[in-house]
Amino acid sequence: MDKSLEYNYQEELKKNGKSYQEFNISIEPSSTEDIESEVSNETKSPEINFQEVGKPKRIIRKYKLIHD
Amino acid sequence: MIKFNFTEDVRVSQGDILRNIEYYESVEEKDGLLTVSKIVFPYVVVLSQDCDLQWDNRIRDNGAKNEDKKLISMIVVPIYNADHFFAGEHLLNINLKMRPIRRKRTEGNSICNNTNPRYHYLEFGDDIEIPDSIMDFKHYFTINIDKVKKDIHSYRVATISELFREQISHRFSHYLSRIGLPEIE
After folding, report:
1. Is residue B168 exposed (0-12), middle (13-18) or buried (19+ Cβ within 10 Å)?
2. A17 — alpha (psi -120 to 50), left (phi > 0) or beta?
3. Which of B17, B23, B30, B33 to mutate to test the interface with A (most CBs of A within 10 A)?
């Protein structure tokens, strides 16, 4: 993640007494179904398709907000 | 054929070809979930004016009495694999279906000969990892300078040589300054 982006959001969230951590699907089984359904195919499919190499791709990441 | 060079320069220059550049489309918070959407472009070319980049770098490295000439961001234009482009498939992974163009017909020839104002054809040759590509001036965006500068040797593939980069810059500015006239009924 862009460090500057991370910094800004951390600062903003701190003002509201919040912080966040990256939501890791593999170690958060309790909510996997809900989250996985919202994540785009591009982020779920690590298989390499050589016809697609060199094309721009969209990546969507989700982070769960944690209240202090 | 375009001329380029490989440099160890520590500053970003006009004509730098950068790899794996991220464009952040959106950052949204809803119900305690932060969603970040970005597009990763395999290659872009830096088109900010080189004198601006030089002054900006001088201030970042050495400081200055004031930061009047420091930049907020720099302009880049993505380049697309020419084969993908002519097939209209270069943006399929971001859900955009583009119009196929026949390379050997009039429109394809005008793109390859750089007479279509929107595009710039780049023929690289075999000394670089990049295939023949096409810049689409309509898709320009800006990126953070600090992030690139901190890891410039990883980002930079090569630098388009002077005159060639000036030609691109000139065509880009000409495209941006075009005047769209309304249709008269």
Report:
1. buried
2. left
3. B33
Say what the ipTM of the complex is. 0.86
- Give the C-alpha separation, B39 to B90, whole Å: 13
CB contacts, 8 Å: B24 with chain A: 2, 5
- Cβ atoms of B22 and B39 closer than 8 Å: yes
CB atoms within 10 A of CB B152: 17
Q: pLDDT tens digits for A4-30? A: 444 455 565 566 665 555 543 333 333
Q: Give B4-44 pLDDT, tens digit per residue.
A: 999 999 999 999 999 999 999 999 999 889 999 999 999 99
pTM of the model: 0.78
Distance, in Å, from the CA atom of B12 to the CA atom of B54, rounded to the nearest integer, reads 8
DSSP string across A2-57 = -HHHHHHHHHHHHHTTEEEEE--GGG-GGGHHHHHHHS-HHHH-----TTTTTS-E
Please, what is the end-to-end C-alpha distance for chain B in angstroms?
44
Residues of B in contact with A58 (CB under 8 A): 25, 37-40, 93-95
What is the spatial distance between Cα A51 and Cα A55, in angstroms, rounded to a whole number? 9
Tokens, residue A44: 């779920």
Among chain B, residues having any CB pair with chain A shorter than 8 Å are 22, 24-25, 27, 29, 32-42, 78, 80-81, 84, 89-95, 131, 144, 146-147
- Contacts with B87 from chain A: Cβ below 8 Å: none
